[in-house]
User: Fold this.
Amino acid sequence: MRYIYIIALLFFSSIALIAQEEKIYSFHSDVEVEKSGIIQVREEIRIFSKGDIFKRGITRSLPLSRTDIQNNRIRMDYTVSEVLMNDNPVNFFTEKEGGDLVIYVGERDIFLEPGFYNYEVHYETAGQIGFFEDYDELSWNVNGLSDKMIDSVSSVVRLPEGASIISSHCYTGRMGSADSDCYSETNDDGSLKTLMTNLPPNEMLTVSVAFTKEVVNQPAGYKPKVFTWFDKNGMAIFSAIFVLLLSVYYRVTWKKYGVDPPKPVAYPQFSPPDGLSPAAVGMLHKGYFMDDLITASIVNLSVKGYLTIEEIIEKKGLFGMRKDRVFSLTRLKSDYSKLPAEEAVVMRNLFYSDDNILLDGKYNKDVSEMMQNYRKSLNKQFRPVIDEGQNIKFHIVPWLAVVLYVIILFYFINNNLMHFVINRKALFITVPLLAILYVIYAIQIVRPGERKLHYKSNIEGLKMYLDIAEEKRMQFFNPPSVTPEKFEELLPYAIALDMEEVWGEKFEKTFLSSTIQPEVYQPTWYTGTYINASIFGHALSSTLSNTVSHAATPPSSSGGGNWSSGSFGGGFSGMGGGGGSVGGW
Assistant:
């Protein structure tokens, strides 16, 4: 029975070891500040090894430089006195790699067995204390970065005799983070204890302790940084003046160049406004080009007798359950001299080599070239009208002003990082405010030209007629009856204005329902699925648009592509000394 117990114990112990993740489980740093300015550091690092990451032992990288409050790069030296593994001395060696001193713990030819290991790294360093006018400070990055979560990160900072804590902060996150998802308290002996659990990968716990001045020896010739009134308020003042001047510019230029002229009164239009084509009406109404406008042009060409549309239902899939719509376009006329420019482009490109073209959703080079030329034609004709009054030139000053603001901001950072840290709260107000003001200005400075307002007014008039209820028709100068001819004439315009369903319903109500014997309406230029006029235009618009769009889109190809101290009043994760990284070898 005893042997069974031992075997079971060994079995379940092996299972437990296999289930453990290979990573750093805890990191504790004991930091003692001496009056001489030297810092004694003892780091306790607990890992679990499986032989993949930690083969021989751990590596501890310590940065060989840091940045002081005046953004000067200060070289750091370390003296590693001892390394322990499971309370026993262990061999180690150091190498300088890049900007770090790397401590290699273990033997090159001795590999670790799977299990937990506790390491202690003892070293000392100097030059980590920041000296200020009213206090001295240590900012210390507690842990070395790891690419896996660390369950527990903690530290104890011990000050020399005669020094007491004035202020303390702890920060967590990646470099520059001001998050403070950590716990700290002052112990009875005056030391500061800090704790963070479940520290995410590649994040840091940073401790900043401001303490009594003139206890730690200040280096000869070192002048403490004196924060002037401008240091504390300069960024906020500059930001306020910047926003004020830019606001004045916005106001003056808007009053002079951005106030909209009076809009013409819209009256019902019973025919295409100003002789514009359906695509022109749609583009002027929306203010930009859309591929869906091609449907309006094709339908308009059909209504005018230039081509016919035949819808073919292809049954595919198992038992023909899936139905795909295919459109066959046939040319009837070859004289395009009386067509709008974009419609002439459609006819020339679609029927370049044949009087018939099949739109089956598959890529077609002729359709693709047609869409490119179609877009160019409409943009050439109506982009100047749409862009009239955009006043783009007045955006140059805000753009240059923001560039200047960023340059001055970097000047503050480069010349005094602490200046930026103290004043950075001003940025949290200034940057969103600048963005909001610019968006408002960009909208308001647009002053539509008279041609654009005239077109839009007449287009609104057409929309009024397309949408007007039957009971209100007589209020508008006895508008024409919605005959099949009138329905077909304005159907392309309704498609361009996304009103084809409304226009179809109106045709159903006013014409087809007005006769004792309802007439059967079937357009002569279209052959295919037809239910009623109220949904005909909408169904044709959606299916034909998708088919043309797919035919104009080339098939996609697959394949891969060949710190510094000085946080009293504000700080962030990653500032100060310490830090570096922890890994295995």
In short: Residues 21-226 form a domain with the Immunoglobulin-like fold (CATH 2.60.40).
